[in-house]
Design goal:
Two copies of one chain form a homodimer. Chain A has helices at residues 6-11, 51-74, 123-137; strands at 12-17, 21-26, 33-38, 81-86, 96-101. The first copy, chain A, contains three helices and five strands. A five-stranded antiparallel beta sheet of chain A has the order 1-2-3-5-4. Chain A has a single domain (6-137), classed as HIT family, subunit A (2-Layer Sandwich). Chain A is an alpha+beta fold. In chain A, α2 (51-74) crosses α3. Chain A starts with 5 loop residues before the first helix and ends with a helix. At the A-B interface, α2 and β4 of A face α2 and β4 of B. β4 of chain A pairs antiparallel with β4 of chain B, so a sheet runs across the interface.
Chain lengths: 139, 139
Protein backbone atom coordinates (compact mmCIF):
# COMPACT_ATOMS: atom_id res chain seq x y z
CA UNK A 1 0.00 0.00 0.00
CA UNK A 2 1.26 3.47 -0.88
CA UNK A 3 1.87 5.68 2.14
CA UNK A 4 3.13 9.24 1.62
CA UNK A 5 6.24 10.03 3.67
CA UNK A 6 5.39 12.58 6.34
CA UNK A 7 8.28 14.75 5.12
CA UNK A 8 6.21 15.74 2.09
CA UNK A 9 3.26 16.80 4.22
CA UNK A 10 5.54 19.05 6.25
CA UNK A 11 7.00 20.88 3.25
CA UNK A 12 4.36 20.85 0.51
CA UNK A 13 0.65 21.15 -0.21
CA UNK A 14 -1.55 18.58 -1.99
CA UNK A 15 -2.56 19.56 -5.52
CA UNK A 16 -4.01 16.43 -7.13
CA UNK A 17 -3.52 12.77 -7.87
CA UNK A 18 -2.42 12.39 -11.47
CA UNK A 19 -2.51 9.03 -13.27
CA UNK A 20 0.69 7.85 -11.56
CA UNK A 21 1.83 10.50 -9.11
CA UNK A 22 0.54 12.60 -6.32
CA UNK A 23 1.33 16.20 -7.32
CA UNK A 24 2.16 18.66 -4.56
CA UNK A 25 3.22 22.31 -4.48
CA UNK A 26 6.40 22.93 -2.50
CA UNK A 27 5.56 25.54 0.14
CA UNK A 28 8.52 27.75 -0.68
CA UNK A 29 7.72 31.16 -2.15
CA UNK A 30 11.31 31.55 -3.39
CA UNK A 31 10.77 29.14 -6.29
CA UNK A 32 7.80 27.87 -8.37
CA UNK A 33 8.15 24.18 -7.45
CA UNK A 34 6.10 21.02 -7.77
CA UNK A 35 6.89 17.60 -6.35
CA UNK A 36 5.62 14.39 -7.96
CA UNK A 37 5.44 11.24 -5.84
CA UNK A 38 4.58 8.03 -7.73
CA UNK A 39 1.85 6.20 -5.80
CA UNK A 40 3.89 2.98 -5.90
CA UNK A 41 4.54 1.25 -2.60
CA UNK A 42 8.22 0.84 -1.77
CA UNK A 43 9.66 2.64 -4.83
CA UNK A 44 12.96 4.43 -4.15
CA UNK A 45 14.67 4.51 -7.55
CA UNK A 46 13.40 5.00 -11.12
CA UNK A 47 14.32 1.37 -11.78
CA UNK A 48 11.75 0.32 -9.15
CA UNK A 49 8.95 1.43 -11.50
CA UNK A 50 7.90 -0.68 -14.49
CA UNK A 51 8.88 0.87 -17.82
CA UNK A 52 5.36 2.06 -18.66
CA UNK A 53 5.15 3.85 -15.32
CA UNK A 54 8.53 5.42 -15.98
CA UNK A 55 7.18 6.80 -19.26
CA UNK A 56 4.11 8.09 -17.39
CA UNK A 57 6.36 9.74 -14.82
CA UNK A 58 8.22 11.52 -17.61
CA UNK A 59 4.95 12.81 -19.10
CA UNK A 60 3.75 13.95 -15.68
CA UNK A 61 7.07 15.77 -15.23
CA UNK A 62 6.38 17.70 -18.44
CA UNK A 63 2.86 18.51 -17.21
CA UNK A 64 4.30 19.61 -13.86
CA UNK A 65 6.71 21.83 -15.79
CA UNK A 66 3.75 23.59 -17.40
CA UNK A 67 2.23 24.08 -13.94
CA UNK A 68 5.51 25.43 -12.61
CA UNK A 69 5.62 27.91 -15.48
CA UNK A 70 2.05 28.95 -14.62
CA UNK A 71 3.03 29.46 -10.98
CA UNK A 72 5.98 31.59 -12.06
CA UNK A 73 3.67 33.78 -14.14
CA UNK A 74 1.24 34.09 -11.20
CA UNK A 75 4.16 35.23 -9.04
CA UNK A 76 5.22 37.79 -11.65
CA UNK A 77 8.49 35.90 -12.11
CA UNK A 78 8.26 33.90 -15.35
CA UNK A 79 10.42 30.76 -15.38
CA UNK A 80 13.59 30.90 -17.46
CA UNK A 81 14.83 27.31 -16.93
CA UNK A 82 13.28 24.19 -15.49
CA UNK A 83 15.28 22.03 -13.10
CA UNK A 84 14.10 18.43 -12.73
CA UNK A 85 15.60 16.13 -10.14
CA UNK A 86 15.09 12.83 -8.35
CA UNK A 87 17.48 12.79 -5.39
CA UNK A 88 16.02 11.21 -2.26
CA UNK A 89 19.14 11.42 -0.11
CA UNK A 90 17.08 12.67 2.84
CA UNK A 91 13.63 11.30 1.92
CA UNK A 92 14.18 8.02 0.07
CA UNK A 93 10.58 7.55 -1.12
CA UNK A 94 10.81 8.04 -4.90
CA UNK A 95 9.86 11.58 -5.87
CA UNK A 96 10.65 14.04 -8.62
CA UNK A 97 11.19 17.76 -8.14
CA UNK A 98 10.22 20.16 -10.95
CA UNK A 99 11.48 23.64 -10.16
CA UNK A 100 11.31 26.89 -12.08
CA UNK A 101 14.50 28.88 -12.07
CA UNK A 102 15.52 32.44 -12.92
CA UNK A 103 18.89 34.16 -13.04
CA UNK A 104 17.67 36.45 -10.23
CA UNK A 105 16.53 33.70 -7.86
CA UNK A 106 18.39 33.29 -4.55
CA UNK A 107 20.10 29.98 -5.45
CA UNK A 108 21.04 30.67 -9.09
CA UNK A 109 23.00 29.10 -10.74
CA UNK A 110 23.31 26.43 -8.06
CA UNK A 111 20.66 23.81 -7.31
CA UNK A 112 17.74 24.62 -5.00
CA UNK A 113 18.23 21.53 -2.87
CA UNK A 114 20.00 22.43 0.35
CA UNK A 115 20.08 26.14 -0.59
CA UNK A 116 18.94 28.18 2.39
CA UNK A 117 15.63 27.85 4.19
CA UNK A 118 12.18 27.59 2.65
CA UNK A 119 9.94 30.64 2.89
CA UNK A 120 6.34 29.52 3.34
CA UNK A 121 3.79 31.31 1.14
CA UNK A 122 1.28 32.06 3.87
CA UNK A 123 -2.44 31.63 3.26
CA UNK A 124 -3.11 34.76 1.22
CA UNK A 125 -0.17 34.29 -1.17
CA UNK A 126 -0.80 30.57 -1.52
CA UNK A 127 -4.31 30.84 -2.96
CA UNK A 128 -3.48 32.38 -6.37
CA UNK A 129 -0.45 30.14 -6.73
CA UNK A 130 -2.50 27.00 -6.08
CA UNK A 131 -5.15 28.27 -8.50
CA UNK A 132 -2.55 28.78 -11.24
CA UNK A 133 -1.07 25.32 -10.67
CA UNK A 134 -4.49 23.64 -10.64
CA UNK A 135 -5.53 25.42 -13.82
CA UNK A 136 -2.37 24.29 -15.62
CA UNK A 137 -2.91 20.72 -14.41
CA UNK A 138 -6.51 20.82 -15.70
CA UNK A 139 -8.10 20.23 -12.30
CA UNK B 1 22.46 19.46 -36.52
CA UNK B 2 23.44 18.26 -33.06
CA UNK B 3 26.59 19.88 -31.70
CA UNK B 4 27.87 18.89 -28.27
CA UNK B 5 28.48 21.89 -26.01
CA UNK B 6 32.20 22.26 -25.35
CA UNK B 7 31.51 22.31 -21.61
CA UNK B 8 30.87 18.54 -21.72
CA UNK B 9 34.16 17.86 -23.46
CA UNK B 10 35.98 19.78 -20.74
CA UNK B 11 34.44 17.86 -17.83
CA UNK B 12 33.61 14.37 -19.10
CA UNK B 13 34.80 11.51 -21.29
CA UNK B 14 32.94 9.93 -24.22
CA UNK B 15 31.51 6.48 -23.50
CA UNK B 16 29.12 5.71 -26.34
CA UNK B 17 26.20 6.90 -28.42
CA UNK B 18 23.04 5.19 -27.19
CA UNK B 19 19.82 5.19 -29.21
CA UNK B 20 18.98 8.77 -28.19
CA UNK B 21 21.79 10.14 -26.07
CA UNK B 22 25.50 10.50 -26.05
CA UNK B 23 26.65 8.87 -22.80
CA UNK B 24 29.70 10.36 -21.09
CA UNK B 25 31.53 9.63 -17.83
CA UNK B 26 31.96 12.69 -15.63
CA UNK B 27 35.69 13.02 -14.92
CA UNK B 28 35.26 13.37 -11.17
CA UNK B 29 36.64 10.56 -9.04
CA UNK B 30 34.57 11.69 -6.06
CA UNK B 31 31.34 10.28 -7.51
CA UNK B 32 30.35 7.54 -10.00
CA UNK B 33 28.63 9.80 -12.52
CA UNK B 34 27.32 9.58 -16.07
CA UNK B 35 25.91 12.37 -18.20
CA UNK B 36 23.39 11.72 -20.99
CA UNK B 37 23.02 14.32 -23.74
CA UNK B 38 20.13 13.72 -26.19
CA UNK B 39 21.46 14.13 -29.73
CA UNK B 40 18.64 16.53 -30.56
CA UNK B 41 19.59 19.90 -32.00
CA UNK B 42 18.42 22.85 -29.93
CA UNK B 43 16.82 20.88 -27.06
CA UNK B 44 17.01 22.66 -23.68
CA UNK B 45 14.05 21.28 -21.75
CA UNK B 46 12.40 17.84 -21.55
CA UNK B 47 9.39 19.35 -23.31
CA UNK B 48 11.61 20.04 -26.34
CA UNK B 49 11.80 16.28 -27.01
CA UNK B 50 8.90 14.38 -28.60
CA UNK B 51 7.15 12.05 -26.15
CA UNK B 52 8.72 8.89 -27.56
CA UNK B 53 12.18 10.39 -27.15
CA UNK B 54 11.31 11.35 -23.60
CA UNK B 55 10.43 7.71 -22.89
CA UNK B 56 13.74 6.67 -24.48
CA UNK B 57 15.59 9.18 -22.31
CA UNK B 58 13.98 7.66 -19.23
CA UNK B 59 15.06 4.16 -20.27
CA UNK B 60 18.59 5.38 -20.99
CA UNK B 61 18.63 6.98 -17.53
CA UNK B 62 17.89 3.58 -16.00
CA UNK B 63 20.64 2.02 -18.10
CA UNK B 64 23.03 4.78 -17.03
CA UNK B 65 22.04 4.03 -13.44
CA UNK B 66 23.22 0.45 -13.90
CA UNK B 67 26.50 1.76 -15.32
CA UNK B 68 26.90 4.15 -12.40
CA UNK B 69 26.38 1.24 -10.01
CA UNK B 70 29.05 -0.72 -11.90
CA UNK B 71 31.45 2.22 -11.63
CA UNK B 72 30.78 2.41 -7.90
CA UNK B 73 31.63 -1.28 -7.53
CA UNK B 74 34.82 -0.80 -9.59
CA UNK B 75 35.81 2.02 -7.24
CA UNK B 76 35.13 -0.15 -4.18
CA UNK B 77 32.35 2.23 -3.16
CA UNK B 78 29.01 0.62 -4.05
CA UNK B 79 26.22 3.09 -4.74
CA UNK B 80 23.59 3.52 -2.05
CA UNK B 81 21.30 6.02 -3.80
CA UNK B 82 21.02 7.30 -7.33
CA UNK B 83 20.54 11.00 -7.98
CA UNK B 84 19.10 11.95 -11.36
CA UNK B 85 18.87 15.55 -12.47
CA UNK B 86 18.33 17.77 -15.49
CA UNK B 87 19.37 21.29 -14.50
CA UNK B 88 21.16 23.20 -17.24
CA UNK B 89 21.50 26.49 -15.40
CA UNK B 90 25.11 26.82 -16.54
CA UNK B 91 25.05 24.64 -19.67
CA UNK B 92 21.59 24.95 -21.20
CA UNK B 93 21.94 22.13 -23.76
CA UNK B 94 19.55 19.44 -22.50
CA UNK B 95 21.40 16.82 -20.46
CA UNK B 96 20.68 14.43 -17.63
CA UNK B 97 23.03 13.65 -14.77
CA UNK B 98 22.95 10.18 -13.20
CA UNK B 99 25.08 10.14 -10.06
CA UNK B 100 25.78 7.43 -7.51
CA UNK B 101 25.69 8.61 -3.92
CA UNK B 102 26.84 7.26 -0.58
CA UNK B 103 26.43 8.54 2.95
CA UNK B 104 30.24 8.87 3.14
CA UNK B 105 30.67 10.90 -0.05
CA UNK B 106 31.93 14.50 0.24
CA UNK B 107 28.64 16.18 -0.70
CA UNK B 108 26.17 13.92 1.16
CA UNK B 109 23.30 14.57 1.77
CA UNK B 110 23.38 17.66 -0.43
CA UNK B 111 23.41 17.60 -4.23
CA UNK B 112 26.66 17.15 -6.14
CA UNK B 113 26.06 20.12 -8.41
CA UNK B 114 28.09 23.08 -7.23
CA UNK B 115 29.64 21.05 -4.40
CA UNK B 116 33.39 21.66 -4.37
CA UNK B 117 35.77 21.04 -7.25
CA UNK B 118 35.95 17.97 -9.48
CA UNK B 119 38.88 15.61 -8.94
CA UNK B 120 39.96 14.19 -12.29
CA UNK B 121 40.59 10.43 -12.33
CA UNK B 122 43.93 10.52 -14.09
CA UNK B 123 44.75 8.03 -16.82
CA UNK B 124 45.51 4.97 -14.68
CA UNK B 125 42.40 5.26 -12.50
CA UNK B 126 40.17 6.08 -15.44
CA UNK B 127 40.77 2.85 -17.37
CA UNK B 128 39.03 0.37 -15.02
CA UNK B 129 36.19 2.82 -14.43
CA UNK B 130 35.57 3.24 -18.16
CA UNK B 131 35.75 -0.53 -18.59
CA UNK B 132 33.13 -1.07 -15.88
CA UNK B 133 30.84 1.55 -17.39
CA UNK B 134 31.23 0.17 -20.92
CA UNK B 135 30.55 -3.37 -19.74
CA UNK B 136 27.34 -2.28 -17.99
CA UNK B 137 26.24 -0.38 -21.11
CA UNK B 138 26.87 -3.47 -23.24
CA UNK B 139 29.49 -1.84 -25.46
Amino acid sequence: MFILDAAFEATSVFLTDLSLCQARLQDDARFPWLVLIPRTAGARELEDLPADDRARLMEEAVLAGAAVRAVGRALGRPVQKLNVGALGNLTPQLHLHVVGRRADDPAWPGPVWGAGAAEAYGEAALAPVMAAARDALGI
